[in-house]
Specification:
The strands form two sheets. A three-stranded antiparallel β-sheet has the order 1-2-3. The mean pLDDT is 79. By secondary structure, the chain is an alpha+beta fold.
Length: 114
């Protein structure tokens, strides 16, 4: 299955639309596909995996800060740059979501297998 793509019609949500509409959305809430109108949800198992991978670099903040301080940046600037890099990383990782049909919806007339 392709990332950010409707399993019914194949409509691919752009990175920015996905970020704006679904990034902070509850995993279990459903929305209608912009193209075909079928109800979709985010794959909860994949989102949890992405959360672990996306947030994992937070543990490396002190290491990144020390690395940046080696380039004669002050501690506040080093922490700021490190936090910005982690936010960019997490945003990219969360953009790799997969969508599923909401419960009770069908793919082109056939029930989706769980």
């Amino acid at each position: 299955m392709k990332v950010r793509t409707c399993p019914n019609c194949g409509y691919k949500y752009s990175f920015w639309l996905h970020l704006r509409k679904h990034f902070f959305q509850n995993v279990f809430s459903a929305w209608e596909c912009r193209n075909c109108g079928v109800k979709l949800t985010v794959d909860a198992r994949r989102r949890i995996l992405l959360a672990v991978v996306g947030i994992f670099p937070i543990g490396a903040l002190p290491i990144m800060t020390d690395f940046l301080m080696g380039y004669y940046l002050g501690r506040p600037v080093s922490y700021t740059v490190s936090v910005i890099l982690v936010i960019i990383w997490a945003t990219f990782i969360f953009s790799l979501d997969h969508f599923h049909l909401a419960e009770g919806e069908t793919i082109n007339g056939k029930k989706e297998k769980a």
